[in-house]
Fold:
Amino acid sequence: MQHVPLLHILVVSTALFFIGMYGMFTRRNLITILMSLELMLNSVNINLAAFQRYLYPQQTDGIFLSLFIIIIAAAEAAIAIAIIIHLYRTYHSVDVEDATELKY
Amino acid sequence: MMPLSAIAFYLISAFLLITALLSVTGRNIFRSAIWLLFSLLGVAAIYFWLELNLLAAVQIVVYVGGIVVLIIFSVFLTRGSGQELPTLRRSRHFFALLAVISGFLFTAWSLWLYGYRQTASDAVVADVRTIGKQMLSIEAGGYALPFEMVSILLLASMVACIAIAMKLPDSKTTNTPK
Structure:
């Protein structure tokens, strides 16, 4: 583990974050937007775990923060999927361009 | 000659980034969900590589076993899984790529400028017993209050899911969209 500098892990996690951001920009389907969001949350978790392991190996705060982020991401994904299914029932589509009731 | 652990890290991150890219660019929504599954497994492999075994186990259980399955279910519930996603205009792809690449370069540049100084990292990682005791401890450094708050949050989100996705009675669903 000592042979890989911290910077490389951070660059990998940055790349993962921006891949998720690309998905958020180019997708129009709500489920795929949710998938991009999961990628971004995972990149943040990699950051926290790497900081914990490299800079503060005696403490456990990085592990706890990542654990709570994973739990809250699970709750958020469940609610988002409930909303998507309700939206599909109302509009018969999960495209973000079709849900325009609040727009005008 | 690179040591074996460094080679393992670069292989894992290449796998992770390639599967993530395939997941956000694929045209078939079911296939991109499967690529997302592999990408999350790659993140779990990075946790294993960092010797954070508990975090890797939680990642596999919650993300790979929970969230991806939920996403695949919602794919099946909402539209045909074999259906192709529509392609976007070319200009939108261009601007998205521009924003993403410039953001990545800026962030990587500022990370490089900061130059993290690595302290001694041969200390032993906290084992599961320590983590569990600290999670339920109410003394300084304990995580009992966030633990309770997260449990209430999970309960609230479960109730909210049922309330949102419940089928309304027919009298209330008359406001169909135009």
Observations:
- Residues 75 and 97 of chain A are 25 Å apart (CA to CA).
